[in-house]
Amino acid sequence: MKNRIEDTPSQELITGTINTLDPRRPLGMKRTNLILMAIFLVSSVFFIHPVMAGFPEAPVNLGSAGDFVILGKTAITTTGGTNILGNIGISPAAASFMTGFALILDSSNQFATSFLVDGQVLAATYAPPTPTLMTTAISDMETAYTNAAGRTLPDSTEFNGGDLTNQSRPAGLHKWGGDVLINSPGFTLTGSSTDVWIFQIAGKLTVNSGAIVTLAGGALAKNVFWQVADTVFLGTTVQMKGIILAQTNIEMLNGAVLDGRALAQTAVTLDNNDINTPAGEEVVQVVVPPETVPTLSEWGIIGLIVVLGVAAASRVRKFQGTGISPTLSA
Q1: Is the pTM value of this prediction over 0.70?
Q2: What ranges do the domains of the chain cover?
């Protein structure tokens, strides 16, 4: 008589729960372990390496530096008919290192205004709370630079040898170990309003005269970040877009336009330029001026006006019904 397993397959063999190589070891446990291992590996890709999983870059957090369209640590200078939409500030250098703006100090001594600036002008040497606000803004600018420089897993490295002339780049993180150049006609970024570009540049960024950085498809300047370890140079009539985080200085020549922010860890030099807060972001009031309290002489004038008003009202009531018009004498 033949063995039962040879006569008819057991239910375990039919369902695949017995390992034919070793009947004592259930095959189901092996399959379960393989499934669990696969789940672990997939989770590692998505949660430990989110960029590899196709997650987009997050915008660089500017902190309070985002309240300024221009920040500098050593100097901010301008010549010609510069127009600035937004706040500008300097620290730790004094207000005297902002030249060409014809600054008018507010009565609070906390900020200044300029006919060139549609916003507030702040310096470390103005009255409190401005020094503290400026120290925080500069620190936030440096933190933002470090954050942008520290992003890893770039989508491209050394693209076209650093020459972006007549090129385009998709949203993401792009890295160069040296200088980056943009000549006329320019450079194009195409994406949606939520796409983010971060350009890590270990050398200089040079945008030569006439070059235009174009945003297409709904891309926004507030989501474009240029992290530059060396100087930033924008030639005449350049049209630049994005947030410039420069470890040294930013220089703009005659007629250059920036839709974004110029945040420099040394100086910002302007020459008849337009600098505008990025579209979709408001110009905030960094320092709220204290309410004006009337002086003693002003209170006296106010009191006299009240007394005269009361006297006039009383005289009018006295003559009501008599048909005689009241006459006020001095």
Answers
A1: yes
A2: 4-48, 63-276
